[in-house]
Design a protein that fits this description.
149 residues; alpha/beta; SHC Adaptor Protein; 6-stranded mixed sheet; 5 helices; 24% helix; globular
């Protein structure tokens, strides 16, 4: 059984698994204990350039596409929800405090993996927010404050 994970563990952003299949993600989630809220982020194998949030909800693995928005933001593809995040790290931070889509599950047990690539993070010196500022993309700066789009 996986041990309890603190908020600082989630802040380390080491739950990225690159390009793995949903079956491989299922195996990792279950190997890490299969507890409610166990999660990882991976590259989508079927939707190039996008990512997938894989997590346990009600004892079952769930996979939700994370769509890359115009190359500069990320949004979960779920019913009636269109929040835009400037980095995968900020998306995970949000869903560690709020339920994911229609479920009541929050992300609380990260599967140990790798850090995110710098170009998909809000925090860091070469992230989307810094690039948007230097390129004068004010529309993106306004949209990435986690307001509905």
């Amino acid at each position: 059984m996986a041990s309890s994970t603190s908020r600082s563990d989630i802040d380390e952003d080491r739950f990225y698994f690159g390009k793995i299949t949903s079956n491989e993600a299922d195996e990792i989630l279950m190997k890490e204990g299969g507890e409610e809220g166990t999660f990882l982020i991976r590259e989508s194998c079927s939707s190039l350039g996008n990512y997938v949030l894989s997590f346990i909800s009600d004892g079952q693995p769930i996979h939700i596409l994370i769509q890359k928005y115009k190359g500069d933001g990320f949004s979960l593809v779920v019913l009636n929800e269109a929040l835009l995040f400037s980095g995968l790290d900020s998306l995970v931070a949000y869903y560690s405090q709020h339920p994911v889509g229609p479920s009541s599950t929050t992300l609380c047990h990260p599967c140990p993996g790798n850090p995110f690539p710098a170009d998909v993070c809000l925090h860091g010196s070469s992230n989307l927010l810094h690039r948007s500022t230097s390129q004068g993309k004010l529309e993106l700066l306004i949209k990435t404050t986690c307001h509905p789009v």
